[in-house]
Amino acid sequence: MADYCNGAAGRQEVEVDKEALVKILARYPGTFDVLRELIQNADDAVARNIQIHFQTKEPAKSQPASQLDVSKLDIHKWIIKNDGNGFGEKDWKRLGKIAHGNDDSRKVGAFGVGFYSVLSKSDRPLVRSNGKSLQFYKREDGKLCKFPADCPMDSWTSIELELRKPEPLPMLTDLTRFLVSSVAFLTHIDTFVVHLDSERVLHVEKQAESPVGIPIPEHLKPTTPQEALTVESIQRTVQRITINTVESAFPPSSTSTLPPITAEDLVERCIEADRPKRLFRGVHGILKDNTIMHDLYTATINVNLGPESEMMRGVETNMKRLPSDFECKAVYFNSEQYESLVGIRNSDAPKAKHLARLLFGSQGIIPENDSGRLFIGQSTSQTTGIGLHISAHFLPTMERGSIDLANGQVAGVLYRHFKFFQDSEVLSSTAWNKDVLFVGGFLARVIYEQEMQMHATKSQGDLEKELGLCTMARFTFGLTVPHGEVSKILQEAFFSCCHGPKSPFPVVSDAGISCASDPQIRQRFRKNNRPPSFLKTYVVFHEDIEPCQRSEIIKRYNVPAFRFQDIVQEFKSGVTQDALKSFFVWWEDFNRNPPSSTPSTARDEFCQEFASQGILHTSHGIKIAFKDIEFFTFLPLPNDLSPPDTIHVDLTSGLRNKGAIECFGWTQLPLLHWLKYACSQAPHLASSEGSGQASDVGYRILRVLVQFALVEEFQQWDEAAELMKGLKCIPTNTELQLPANSYFEVADVCGILPVADYAEFDSIPPTPVAVERGFEYKPMERLHVGNVLLHIGVRVAMDWNDMIERYVNLVRVASGPRRLLRFLTTIRNGDLTVQEINDLQTRRVFYSENHGRAPGAELYLPNEDVRKLRLPIFVLSQEAMTALRRSVDPSNPCEVEKVIESLGIREYPTLDKIIALAASDELVVRPPALKYFLLNLEKHYNDYEPENFAEHAFIPTKCKSYARLNEVFDSPIWEKLGFKQPAEVLRRDLSRLGIKDKPSIDTIVECFKNPERRPSDIDTATIWFEYLHLYGKLPIPKLREQLSTIPFVPVKNLDPLSSESSPIKYICPKDCLITSNEMKRQHRDIFPFVSFGQHGNGFLDDCRAKKSPDASDIISKILENPRGYLKALQNNTEDVAADELLPAEQVPISDWAGRDFAGDVFVAYEDDTLKKMYREMGSEFLGTCVRHVVAIGGTAGCSPPFNHDEVIRRIGHFMDKRDKNERKDTSFCDAGSTNKLSVKGCNSLTLEQIFTPPNRVDAAATIRTKPVQKNAGFEFGETDGSYTLWMVSGIRDSRDLHYDIAVALCHVLLKTYVPDDVYLLASLFAANDELLERYYPRKTKRSSARDINVKSTKKSKAPKKEVKFPFPLPACLADLAQRAGVPITWSHQTINQQTTTPEGDMETAIRLCGKSDSNGQIPGQPDRKYTKKYDKHCKQAHTIKLKEKPNLRDRQTKIRFFLAQGVQCEQPLQPALEEFAKLIEDLANVFNKSASTACFIFWKDTDEDLMAFNRDQKCIFLNLAHYHKFCE
User: Fold this and answer.
1) C-alpha torsion angle, residues 633, 636, 638, 642 (rounded to 10)
2) Which of 19, 177, 534, 666 has the fewest CB atoms inside 10 Å of its own CB, making it the most exposed?
3) What is the reported pLDDT for 626?
């Protein structure tokens, strides 16, 4: 190879016709194009065998093909060898030229480039033949060169292709299809052998029998229309192709490589999918030795073109010389051969499946979708549209993938004048190829007639039709691709190659294979229309012939349609009964959808002629003229009961549409007309039949009447009943009875009546039922028979009283209940009178199991679970109940349950009954009753409410006793308190029964209220209180209040003031004082101090017990027993300080306004219960004793942030919400006195507070605070009574200013105030005018601030009230009373008493009034900061995912409960949930809302600050965790 590249001697350049080569090689895209060209060259060289070698990189080391995964192999070299004639000098020279064509007319190659298709695979192809070799390669400049050399002599010609790059092994399945289909048409090649390295994987061999000559039919023209080509002879050769493979080299999962699908191919597939195919059944099994057979038809064609003809010149100019003769071949699988191949495809055997993959497919030898392909030596992509492959000397396209029908240089001028080519596209096609295609159509016609003749000779009957239809289906000339005109040319040649429409053409008719040109053949009226068998001299096309094929044959051979004249001609001499029946069936089918070509007038004339002239020849030799007939019927009437003016049913039994026979002027036989005739004939028939059969006439009339009534909508039942009343026509369980003496089965409750026997009517054959359009056959219905019997007088019931008496006296247990229930359900429809229902419910009518007869109201339906409850069971089995439901009305079985319910019979016990059984004294019944209740709680007892059965002891406990619901709790800790624990078997049903984990609020309260259940002594109380504190905490304030007022705390009766003599007495927790170190000695003997241990005292502390008495306790003791209290106090006087007692008017009441002095002075308790008493006794609020003094720092050029009107307007809004008793007598708030208020601005302001004790002689007790910087303050003019509100200028939006203004105004306007008052007023100053009117509307509309009129009258001091003791005071106490004055009020010094709530609320209010500083400081309090704690739920959108817990739903209030996603609740929620739900229900009632629909409870203890949220302003969700934490 180095010599080749270095330009060694002998190197030659290859001559290339570049322009032709570019056009040709660009059209070689196929997978096997290289093999096809080399195989065709070998066939032209008269080769018999071809070997194809695929070599990997290292063949010696490769494994056998049976052990390789061929899909992963990389092929490096192809070697194609043939044993044909070796290369001669002329061949070697032509091999060195590209695109110079081939002038050998006998060879297929035409362009001279076939061999050079190998350049698409290899850059260095090597050819060896006859001891010489020729190596091709490319030089560095890109030119193709060849290097001839000598090589060892060999009988094989080989072409070695070293691939340009490794390629996968070609799909062997596709390669096999290609080789099998190719070998069928190759002239010389018989064998293909494929090797993978050194192992043979495929062997294809063809064997041909001796050819048999086929005579050309005389009615066919063997020449093309212009006599350019002539068919000289035709031969048929049977070929056998044997295929042997190594199956492991053909993986089942491999997919075939198919050619690109064109648009025409898609259209063809769509058309073929819609076309009905008649496939062979197939003979299952594998052919012997994997050999298939097919017929090869070979037609020898003479070319009649002269050398000067235009077609000859055009072909030779562009290609090569045309041959003087050539062969046209066709591969066709006859019926027997195709049958075997279909059997292979349908077989499940692995070998058969493998062989089918190699034969079927788009490139297989078996025509796909009955469409073969054109072959030019080998297969092309052009389809034929019929079920055979055609090979001939076509002029191909350059790559030989199809035939050339569009080459302008080879356009056929001779066909411009052909009669059968009218399409402009066809006129421009290649003349030569069209002539050759015409020969192919001629050959197809010969094959078709040969096949049809064989079917007509060797088969008969349905098999003949079946095979003929299959053959016709393979010659339908479907759509072809890529050139659609191919099928048109073949079809035109197929039909036009005969001598005219009189020429024979075999088709399949209803009689078998007939000739289309036969005068007796007719078209069908339409597809699926049955042939008129009454016409014996005509045949019609078979209904399964393809529509397009049938229409083409009709057009070509002028096949006429049926005419009425044909029928009239047939009926001239009369018809038989069978012919007339056949005519009626055909006529009905014809009139259902008549052809548009047949006018209605022609049909009417035919009907008139038929009815007037038609004659029927009966089987008895009687002639019946159609003009004497008036009626027809579809019923099988007895001959002796059939009217003479009615056509017999045997002639019309096959009809389904009465309209088809009414057109002849006949009408349907009326029922009453027939009944009158039949009843009139009954006496005569009875006398003729004899006494033994006299009564059978009535029964036969009744049978026909039942059939007739099913067909006709009969209404004249009264006349029919009158005609039938004298006939014994009703078959009963005894004998035939008159209608009035017969009963329906349902009426025979007692089993003694003559019952109509329906079974006698079951033998009636199916009858047609009249519907709107025609007749529809179905069996006789018993319901219809019953209606007929009812209309003619059969009775349905007895007298009620007579029936009940007979039932009670005669009926036994066996079938009586089912009969009675069926009667009540079917006849009475459950509609019973009050008296009838009372009879069935109260009289002992029914039998019960083991209880004798019993009323219906005491019975229960059969059920094993109910039997265990020892309740009376209604004697009716489940099977009998099911049969009863079906017999009454299968579509509505609930009617039986309605009747049973009206009788009072129950399916299951009521809720009250089952609970009573579970709590009864019968110990055997209690367990099954409770079990039945639990099993059916959701099904039958979903209205169970535990509180309704609180007094029933039906809950089994662990101590093997039964207890009430309010005595049983799940937690074992409550056993110490006298409660019980449920039995272990109820562990899963606690929530369903309403058993709680611990007692409810009401239960605990009732337990302590009940004198019999409260603790009997102090030790028992200690245990109770410890358990309640440890396990039953009282988080609900309402419960604390309730328990605090119940006397359940046992104490020793050692109180000297008590009048009780018992050693133990019970007091309320609020009256208890818990013993502690702070206990004073003077209280020890007066008040009840108790101690129940640490946890017991904790419980009492939860119940409002105190550690020391307060003022109310002391006053209560004084009022209860003044003498005893003073006596006890006298014994402990040394502990009482004299200065602790002061007159009420000298002791101020603690309030928030005077909080700065609360730690320095004596104040009264700020208690709501004592505040009123203090006020009535003359005490003032601490804030009223405080005076504000302001000091102004400069006013020059200062203006107030709020002017006079703005201040007055906000004061008006604020004072609207204040009670008159809370207001001070402030002059500038009076109507018309607002001018006494001045609003001024300043640079700075300091505030000093001065406290002056009320009504004290020692004025030196005045207290002053240290002056502090403020933003606002009031200055009061004592001389003129004016008020001046000073504000620091320039800070209108400051929250400090709003707050200081609010404090100053509240101090001037109100007697006392709380933080909420300050926050409200500060919010008013923070709001603008629009917000002020929107969110703080005035109570009444006022025109100006001067309309504010806050009237306040000065109250005179309340007169002192003397307390008159009923006994003289002791000297020490009298002295104290004289010093303190009367009345006496108690007080204590609250030094360092601070409240944290105002500051906390102040932060919130200040934050809401305005924005905070950037550093988060609270205005006025620089040492404190607020966090986002207050607004995390207000300013941020939260998404809370909740999941409902139905088992925790509160049963009493029906409020639903949810659990937040991701939250695990470890503590029991049911008790707290019930308490919280009750609280919500009370709150909802205040707002007239339904708690169950407007309120929902959820638990989210991970965010206990979240109190609640709403949704759509329709419902609110409340957090139980928030309540549990802050109210515990």
Assistant:
1) 0
2) 19
3) 73
Q: Identity (one letter) of the amino acid at 1175?
A: R
The span from the CA of 100 to the CA of 108, in Å, is 15
Separation CA 985–CA 970 (nearest Å):
12
Axis crossing angle, helix 485-496 with helix 431-458, rounded to the nearest 10: 60
The whole-angstrom separation of Cα 1358 and Cα 1339 is 33
Instruction: Provide the pLDDT for residue 1398.
Output: 36
Query: Beta strands of 339-414 (E only): which ranges?
Result: 373-376, 378-383, 389-391
Which tens digits make up the pLDDT trace of 373-383? 998 877 888 89
Contact 1189, 1176 (CB under 8 A): no
Please say if the pLDDT value at position 1409 is more than 80: no
Q: Please, what's the b/e burial string for 836-855 (b: 16 or more CB within 10 A of its CB; e: otherwise)? A: beebbbeeebbbbbeeeebb
DSSP 3-state of 307: coil
CA–CA distances in Å: residue 1282 to residues 585, 1285, 1375: 124, 10, 47
**pLDDT tens-place string over residues 1191-1231:** 998 888 888 989 888 888 888 888 877 777 777 777 666 65
Q: How many whole angstroms separate alpha carbon 143 and alpha carbon 1092?
A: 120
Supply 50's token pair. 């071809």
Strand partners, 236: 212, 297
Pairing type for strands 49-55 and 191-196 reads parallel
Single-letter residue type at 140: E
**Sign, CA torsion 374/376/378/379:** negative
DSSP lists the bridge partners of residue 303 as 229
Burial of 952 (0-12, 13-18, 19+ CB in 10 A): middle
Tell me the two tokens of residue 716.
């004249």
Sign for the pseudo-dihedral over CA of 533, 539, 540, 543: positive
Contact of 632 with 652, CB cutoff 8 Å: yes
**Residues constituting the chain:** 1528
How far is Cα 926 from Cα 869, in angstroms, rounded to an integer? 8
Segment 1464-1467 long-range contacts (CB within 8 Å, at least 24 positions apart): 1465/1499, 1465/1501
Please report the sign of the dihedral spanned by the C-alpha atoms of residue 425, residue 430, residue 432, residue 434.
negative
**1304 neighbors 1210 (Cβ within 8 angstroms):** no
d(CA 1484, CA 1492): 9
The CA-atom distances, in angstroms, between 544 and each of 279, 527, 528, 540, 550 are: 12, 8, 8, 12, 9
- pTM to 2 decimal places: 0.46
